[in-house]
Each structure stands twice: as structure tokens, then as C-alpha cells.
Amino acid sequence: MGDWRVWVIGMLACAGVVFPLLLSRGQAVPTLTHHAHGPEVVCGLDPGLHGPVPAAQAATLASSSGGWFSDLFTNGGAYMPRSHCVVTAEGNPDWPWIIALVLLNVGVVAAYTRIYFFWRGSYFREEPRDRNAKLFDLSQIFLWCAVCGYLSTVVIFVWPGYRLVALCLVALNIWSWRFALNLDSFKVSFSANRFRRLAHTDSLTGLVNRARMTEAISEAVKLTQSHAGYGYSVMYLDFDRFKEVNDTLGHDAGDDLLKQIADRLSSRLRNGDPLDPKSDRGGMMVARMGGDEFVLLLGGVDDPATALRIGQRIMRRFHEPFVVSERSIHISASVGITTSRLSRGNGGEVLRDADLAMYTAKANGRDHCRLFEPAMLHLAEHRAVIRESLIGAVERNEFWLAYQPIVDLESGGLVGMEAMLRWRHASLGDVSAVEFIPVAEDCGLIRQLGDWVLKQACAQMHRWVETLGHDSPGFVSVNVSRVQFRDPDFAQRVLAIVDETGLDRSKVQLELTASSVATETTAISKHMNHLRAAGLRMALDDFGTGLSAIHCLSTLPLDTVKLDGSIIARVAGGQHAVAVLQAFISLAHDVGIDVIAECIETPAELSQLQGLGCDFGQGYYFGKPTPADDAWNYLRNPPKPGSRGRPTGAKPHLVSEEAA
Description:
By secondary structure, this protein is an alpha/beta fold. 51% of the residues lie in helices and 16% in strands. It is elongated and about 135 Å long. The two termini are 68 Å apart.
């Protein structure tokens, strides 16, 4: 109802009160008559007077009954008995007061009607989980309407003091009109409170978000300083292989899985105030930080060993499968833990420590639980230095490519060269690819770096082909990061770079590690099919390090697999290791895929691999990774088979991971 209508009803209600007061002021004056026994007052309608009264009493009654106070609250006894209220002495309806009371009730009900519709609209704007509070507000409005409207109307007709009821309704009208007219300003305040609540709530799961969790951890830090003996634990969870659910079942299924994860985290654990140092049960707060990352704040738990046991129990809870889109989904969690004994600083720094512990757990093979250690912080600071140094490193010409030969184990002839990325930093010196490639993936520089490596390797291979002709390597192998495969235009970009250098596409081989293929099979398979159909060769690096790599043989378009160096190193360990190696080679040959053995360092390893039927080899026994100029000398004067000894000096790290 509009504001002007409420004002009109309010003015009519006030008028309905004022005019009856003026019109009825003289109605209660008693009538004096004289009889043989003296003057008496005829007040037969007064329940307390049923006959003649003395003149003195009549005078007193006359003076009191005509007063404003008596007229207003007691009706002066001039009206009908209690069972016939709102009726004049002549028995007629007391219309002025009836109209006044009706208008007053209408004003109250109109104001509360407007309030009701405001709350009803806000109720439907709320999320379903927040509507219980609004139902309580709506029930209060219904109660007020009943009291002010229906109940007061009944009271009016059974109680002689209906004028007092009218005054109460006037006061109630003033309050309700004022509240109803100020709903617009209240709506702003209401919306601000709602936005503040939404700003601290994750819209998908209903848990608190990063901002609120950071505040809660900061409050917990302050409590540890002001309350001796109070402690807390923070657990940072990241779920492994969650992206596979989005890729295979869609984002709706991923959202459903996140809701189930939130329910499983918040159930079966202690619920209470996580910031209450006096609570014997402690408490818990669960937050979704974004994506598939969650954080738990446990009050009253500061012992690292106890926190680790709780974290392991939570981690095991996710070994139970989830049901998403009528399919059973198995996921695992990597958990990083810190406590008030292990971390110092504000809420953001404590959260950072738990995050570092989680990344360490994930790097150790996933489905692990790790406590925070100060060494993790030093490693993070080193990663930050690398991240800053990576920006502009290509323009500063700090990167270069090293090439290592790939040899046919049967003939000893050269079949290809692998290009390996190296970084020589001005102040840090030589930085291993194991250190800077993951950083480049995290900060988004891997695309620029990968394009540069591919262009440089293809250009160098084109120069070898033009110069050496048939004596040039058969192909150049370039490592590709799994992050590059996430780009929708990755395949088109690779083909454009290869064609720009003028190199035949069949002379380019892209390598991808088995671990990255296992986590993002869908996107990678799509690009690999496109590139292989366009003429490029595909290789799977680190083959044999997991059962998922075996599954890739039948699902991905591969030309070559590269046996991981750890498998080659175990060949001297006995027949069991040899049997495993033989199984891998036979399995690859059965599906028509060539096998390259990495890290061959001794004649015994070479002889063993030749006897097992391995196709190609790569390692120090044939040559170490060298710059393009030294590789040129190798190509023009390749050493004879069997004369290649292991070079002196420390063994450099071979970039067979996800170097771009």
C-alpha cells in the first residue's frame, strides 16, 4: 500500500477519535429531579446506582461525571450496562465512537499489511536456507494484526472503557504508521545487512567464505594471546582429481560434488563456537575458499599430533565414494595442517602456512596429510623470487635449450634429439626446471615459455635438416606442460608455430608426462588427436610410474612411450625388476607403440635393454644435454657405438618432467 494511502487512513482515524470526544463530552451529565424526599439523581443506567440518592451525593456525582477524565475513561455511568457497550443512554448505537474505533483498527491493519508485504517480498528474495528467520518475522506480523484488529474489536464491545481502547489504538497507530512509512530506509538497512551476510557466505555450499574464515582465524590468534591455554588448529584441504569430474560429467555434477563434500565436512564433527575459549567441546568452522579448496578451523586443539590424527581421520572419510549423476565417484584429499604452536602471525599468515603444508602434501603424491614446517616458508619465499624473476626472463635471453641424442639401440644410429629447457639467472645461477616449471604453470607464464621453446627447437631442427640432409636427426622432441593443453587453441597454436619455422610436421614430437595425462585425460586426448592427425608425433614420458599410465596406452594416440629412469636403474636389482621392465616393453609393443629407455648410463644397462627388445635409448651413455653448438659437433662427428663413456663431472638434471 502506498505511503499516501497510509497517511489518509491515519488522518481519518485521528479525526474519528477527536470528533467523538467533542460530541460526547456532555452526554454523561446526570439529570437532577425533585421528589417529596428531596432532590435525587436519575442514573438508572449506572450499575452502581439503582435508586434515589441524596442531594449532596447527587451534587458530587454531577460535578465528577461531567469531568473530562470521567467522561473519557469511565463514561460517567451514563451509558448502558457493560453487556451493551458502544450504545447511548437512549439505546442507540454510539456512531461517533464506533466509526472512530473502526478507523483506528483499519489504520493499524493497513500499516501492518504494508509491513507484511515488505517482509513477504524479502522472504522470497532470501536463499531457501535463510528463510526460517523470515518465517518468524511473518508470524509476528500475523500476531500483531490479530491483536490490533480482531481481538481489539471484540474487547470494544464487551468492555465499557472502549474510549481507553481507542487511545491505545491511537498510540499503536502512530508507531505502526511511522514504521510502515520508513520501510524504504529500513529496506536499505535490511539489504545492507543481507549483503554483509552474503559477503561472508559461499553461495554454492552455504559455508563461510575466505574473507570470513580469515577474520575468524585472526580472532582465534587474538584469543591465544589473551587466554592462556587456548589453542586452535587450521586444516587446508584440496581435493585431487576434482577437475576430472567437471571435464567428464559437467560443471553441474561438479557443483553437486562440492555440496556433498561440504556436507561431509560439516557433519559428524563437533559443532560449536570455534572462538569460545571457555567451551570444553571447542568448536569448528568450515569454509570454502574457492574451487575445490576447503578450510577447517578447530578451536581447543593446538597439539600438532592430535591435529594430525584428526586430519587423517577427515582424509579417510573421503575414501568413501560419492554418488554424482548416478555414478560412483572416488576422490581423495590432500590436507595441510598448522596449529597455534606451529604458526605465528595474523589470520592471513596462519592460513598461508596451512596452504603451504597442503601443497607439500599434494607434491608428496596426493592423499597425504602434512604438518606445517618453517622450511616450507623458506621454500615459498624462494618460489616467490623465482616467480618475480620469470617475468621478462625470455626478453632478457636468460633461457636456452640443451639437446640430448636419442639412439637406436640395435644399430646405434641417431634417431632424434630431445630439447630441454635451461635457465641461467643473473643472480640465482642455473635454476633447475623442477623449480621453475611448476612456478611458471601457477603464475600463467607457461604458455609464453612453451611457445618460445617450441619455436626455438623447430627453428634449430630446420637448420639441421637444411645443413645435414639425411644425416640430420629424425625428429626433435619437445616437452609440453599439462597446463598448455588446457588452452582451447593449443593445437592450432602449435601447428602455426611449426609451419612458421618451415619444419616438416612429422619431425616434431611432443612429450607429456604420464602423471599429467592421468589427471586431465579429456582435454589432452582432444588436442593429441588433432595434432597427431596433422602429422606430429606424440610421446608419453615417465611411463611405468603408475597404473594410470598403462590405461593411457589404449586411450591416447601415442607413437612412443619413454620408460622412466627409475625403472632402468632397478634392472641390476634382479630378475623381478627385469620381469617388470619386460612386461612394460611387451605391453607397448602389443599396441604398436615404440619404447625409449631414459637414463641409460652403463654398458650393462644397454645390454640388458637390447636383450629385452627395447627400441631406442637416451642417457649419459650416449651423450649429455648440450647447447645447440655442441650438439652440432655431435651430429657432424657422432661417436661410434660402444665408445660412448659416461662424461666426467656431476650429473645434470635431465628435464624429462613437464618442461616446455
